[in-house]
Structures are given as structure tokens and as C-alpha cells.
Amino acid sequence: MVTRCDACPLRGRSLFADMSDEEVRQTQRFKVGELTVEAGTPILTEGAHSAQLFTVLSGVGLRHKVLQNGRRHVLTFLFPGDLIGLQGAVMGEMGHTVEARSRMRLCVFDRQALWNFFGNSPSRSYDLIWIAATEEHFMGEALVTVGQRTAEESVAWALVKLWKRAATLEMTDGAAMPMPFKQQDLADALGLSLVHTNKTLAKFRERQLAVWRDGRLQVNDLETLARIGMTDTAPPKPRPLL
Amino acid sequence: MVTRCDACPLRGRSLFADMSDEEVRQTQRFKVGELTVEAGTPILTEGAHSAQLFTVLSGVGLRHKVLQNGRRHVLTFLFPGDLIGLQGAVMGEMGHTVEARSRMRLCVFDRQALWNFFGNSPSRSYDLIWIAATEEHFMGEALVTVGQRTAEESVAWALVKLWKRAATLEMTDGAAMPMPFKQQDLADALGLSLVHTNKTLAKFRERQLAVWRDGRLQVNDLETLARIGMTDTAPPKPRPLL
DNA sequence: CGCTGTCTTGATCACTATCAAACCGAGTGG
DNA sequence: CCACTCGGTTTGATAGTGATCAAGACAGCG
What pTM value is reported for the model? Predict the structure, then answer.
């Protein structure tokens, strides 16, 4: 029932850095269980004192923050391999909410594990910083996008990001990938209205660059999208897996 | 000439967490020097392979990224106590450029120090994660701002943030603080045009909420600004100092 | 003193939000 | 089997926030 770390289906994927047997054992020791949640379920909520850390085993979700006036911003989309709850574990409380967008399986780690890492395993604590720094780097990119890119550029950028991420996770079959997100989610991630996001997607569909339909995203011309979104098509660097 | 860590002028400020004598000695051991740069000088540039880490001792600066089409986004403003270059040290290259906006004094640490921390000092490596997580948290707030707040709300939010930061650093005398940034910097941080930013500031000036003039920012009604910007006036939590 | 950089203000434009309504597939229940 | 609802998507019409264009003010400076 519960996946053993030495049989972790993620470790083989090209996105993730190699782990030594010792690191796998350490990780296993700190894994306290597995959690399955249905689409739509909040996993952690803003302001909550989370006692747990999760790693996404399968499925997708998102992090978002809501403003006092009810407007919502989606910070990042979550894919297998992503670590959830580091902020809460370190800072005491979560700065955002985490929600499932498909059925998700999550590895559960005890928050305590974190402190053990610092004492026992310099390489693992380095990995944690690596993850935090990378996350920050991504947020920087998102900030530039929302701040400086036009709607068309933003959507293209986001599609390329999503596609590249899915591709390195081998979630793409043929030219399509599962897209359980709503268009509203994408709109809220880019600071655009739902209507405008939809119309922009429609333009890409007409131009045969990308077709998002029936919960699947099909990308026909990644290069052109990347050019429009002013980004590149290089695969992301290998990242450590917790 | 060079400030000794045990005489660090920052450590007493309310913004920073207490350090043990041992931590001060450790920090001193890793400090390799001090650097003074003039306003306008780039300290680290995007893509560069930085071999060094800095902590701001005095002065202010900013981090920014530029897009292929030349548009620029300011990610954060830098104040005394901020750590610069962690991303570069961890990920190999900087994801943004760091630039001085006033004369700045910087403590210089060797990148190598980082690895030593992981091995020798769990509490210091925890501090590093804390810093990275906090930075990420801030970026999240900025993302919500740029994505969801109106121009007026954004500017109010930014002024409150700047003011609170300066206040805990005791950089405010009376009702004013030094503001060596350009309005263009603020505009680029909020994803607004210079003209619109200027007009929004003018409105706040007319309403006597805040007056930014001659390189100084005077805040008359922090509460109202916070209400407009949908944020709070609580001082930031104490943070570790490297 | 002209030059340059920054701030300021006014006029105009357009990208994107908002409003409104139809559409569509999947349930659900009579 | 059909009416009905419901969440999500799609499309059209209109409005507005904020961008862009333009020009003047002002200070510092070679």
C-alpha cells in the first residue's frame, strides 16, 4: 500500500538528481506515511501551523493566496516531486494555501525530520536550501511575468513552463499532457481575467500552437510559444528529491 | 576600517534575532572582508557565477531581472541585514542582478563558508533555510500584489512595506526615511508605468497620506495606507543575521 | 549655460476587465 | 427519457484602468 522510498517511482525520472542508497534510507526513515486526497481538497491552509511536510508522489495541485477583498492569486502549480510545507515548517505558519487539482498521493514527513536533517545530514540540508532557492528563483520569474509580460506573452510563458515540467516527468503522451487545472487557475496565476485568458488561449488554438481542451493540453509548437513568451525550451536542471 | 562582527552595528536592531557569542565568532571566521560600492554600481549580475555572498551592512539597493525585450522588473528592495547571492552560491548562477541605489557597505563571505555551515553548524544552516523561506514568502506577497492589486493598492502596499522595514532598522527620523530609489524603480517593482506610479503618489501626497520628495519618504498615515494596500502594520518577525 | 536625469502634468490610446448570455457535458431526479 | 441544474468554457459588447505620447519644470553638473 505505502510506497517504499527504494521503490519510489519518481527517482528514475530525468528531473531528479541521483540519490545514494544512504540518502534513500534516510528519507525512508523520516517518511511517516502516505496521504491520498481528492481533487479540490485543501491540503494546507494559509496561516495554519503545519506539523507536516509533504512530497507530491502523483497528481497535481496548486498554491494560492487570497487577498482581503477576495481576489486570489495562484503562486505555483504543483507537480510530482514538489515539496510542500517547507515554509510552514520553518517559519511557523504557512504563507499560502495548498490545494489538490486532481487526485493526489503525498508522502508525509514529520516536521521533526527537518531538524534531524540539519544535525545528521549536511547533504540533505543542502538539498533543502537548494529547493528553497530554486523555488525563490521560480517566483522571481513569475513576478517578471505578471509584472512585465503582456497577456499573450504570459500565457505562452505559462504553457511552456507547464509543458516542460510535464515532459521531464514523462507525463506527456504523444503531443498531449493531462491538464486538470481550470482556466480560472491559469488566469489567477497570471493576474488576468478569466475571459481574457480564455480568448488568448483561443488565439493559440486558432494558430495551432497549443490546444487546451477536455482536460488535456496539446502543444504543437513549443518553439514558437517559447519565442512569444520570451523563454527557452531547455529542460529544467535535475533537482533533489525528498 | 573593517567592522568586526562582535561590534556589528546591526545586531542590536530589533529586526534581528539574538546571536550567541559562538555564532558571532563563527560568522567572524567566515567574513573575508568588506566592500563599499557607490550608488548605481551592479554588485552581482544575472547569470554570473558568484563566488561570494554578501550581507548588507549599510545603504540600500535592489534586485532586478530584465526580459529579452528590455523590460525590467524589480524583485525586491535591499536593506541592511539582507543576504545577497545565496541563489548564486547554491544554484551556480544568479537568477537576477543586484544593484546599489545608495552608497553601500557589504560584508563579504566566501562561498565556501556555506558548505562549512552545513557541516559544522546546524543552527546556522537552519538560519539559511529560514532566510530562503522568508524570501520566498515575500516574493509570494509581491506576486499577489502585482497580480491582483490595483495601482493604488499596490503603491500603498509598497510604501507600507518600505516604511515598516526602515522603521525596524531605525532608519526613520521623525516621520521621514531616506528614499534613494527612483520612482522608476517602484514602478518596475509593481509592474506599473512610471507616469501612473507618479500620479498615484501624487494622489497620496494630496491626501496627506505620504509624501515622497527630495529623496525622502514621509509617511503620515500608515494605518490608512495599510488599509488601502490590504496589509497590516505589524512589525516583521526577527530574522537571523549572517 | 546648455545638458542630462528625474519628476511632474496633461492628452490620448488600447489592452484588458467587466458585464452578460449562451453553450456544453455531466449529473440528478421526476 | 427528458427537464433541470451546475461547473466550466466560450463569445460578444462595453467600460475603464493604466499605458503611451508629449512637453515642461527643476536641479545638478561639466
Answer: 0.95
Q: Nucleotides of chain C within 7 Å of a protein C-beta?
A: 6-11, 15-20
CA nearest to nucleotide D21 C1': residue: B195
Give per-residue pLDDT as tens, A114-142: 788 788 888 888 899 999 999 999 999 99
Domain boundary among A123, A143, A163: A143
H-state helical runs in A96-193:
111-120, 122-148, 151-168, 183-190
Residue in B108, B90, B116 with CA at minimum distance from that of residue B26: B116
Q: How far is the CA of B71 from the C1' of D20 (A)?
A: 15
| B146·A146 Cβ contact <8 A | yes
Cα-Cα-Cα-Cα dihedral sign, residues A115, A116, A117, A119: positive
Q: Do A118 and B135 touch (CB under 8 A)?
A: no
Domain that holds residue B172: 148-228
For residues A90 and A151, membership in a common domain is answered with: no
**Co-location of A171 and A137 in the same domain:** no
Residues B157 and B107 in one domain: no
